[in-house]
């Protein structure tokens, strides 16, 4: 941020998906901010520095003049020059305290005896009222990674989950005055949102079309970003992105859940094999009938279907059996 223009809310990464809206029943009821950022630029630091330096030189000159006047017996003029010189000297020292350096990626929140004056975002050396207090606030992009949290998913199974959120201070006034510590506030609200989202969905989907934490990672992280943004908006924080970095069953049920996943995979694979085999058998019977290769009665068709299904669905290679007689003897 290298200009004194009004700050704009940071934009998300290019190509980011549109985030879904929160369910009205899950709306986060956070208090509305009572203060908003007001940008001020102050006076150029060069003007403030050389102006104060000039006043300091004038004060030194008045003090020297007072000494000369006292030496020539001009007591009244010397006293006036001495008093003005000392006061100007003290005022110059105080004015030097108004010089404020603002580095890139930082802002200064200016208050005057408890009253919010504005925020300096213009980088470089600036000069403001030396009686004000100026708090440094970083506007750089930050990462926060939650610790591994153990929660129960929608099915009641204990899981371990953690996430990382990328955020940035968008409104320095709200970040300073709306919460005690905006960094700690973001950390706590992020962990709360992660726990809340994890309890709303199962780890694995049990029905077609059901959302799950493992299979719908993009949708879940989008909802997580929305909820975190809603929770920290009152603190002047803009959430750029969030991602789940760890998702696993808790150790005490990990082995049992692994066996269940393996069983589900075996059942799904078997169902796919049988479906394909039935299709191949149907196609074979249809081609035999359409080309009049052989006429099969219902019993012969049943035998052929049984043999083909055994060949196609068996895990081991089949052994041919030579039938020297007929099918009926």
Automatic annotation (TrEMBL):
**Highest taxon in the source lineage:** Bacteria
* Name of the protein described by the UniProt record: Band 7 protein
Residue ranges crossing the lipid bilayer per the database entry:
47-74, 80-103
Composition-biased stretches, type Basic and acidic residues, lie in 1-11
- Looking at the record, the residues that make up the Band domain are 97-261
Annotated segments matching region Disordered: 1-29
Which keywords, in A-to-Z order, does the entry hold?
Answer: Membrane, Transmembrane, Transmembrane helix
Which Pfam families would you find in this protein's record?
Band_7
The record lists the lineage as: Bacteria, Bacillati, Actinomycetota, Actinomycetes, Frankiales
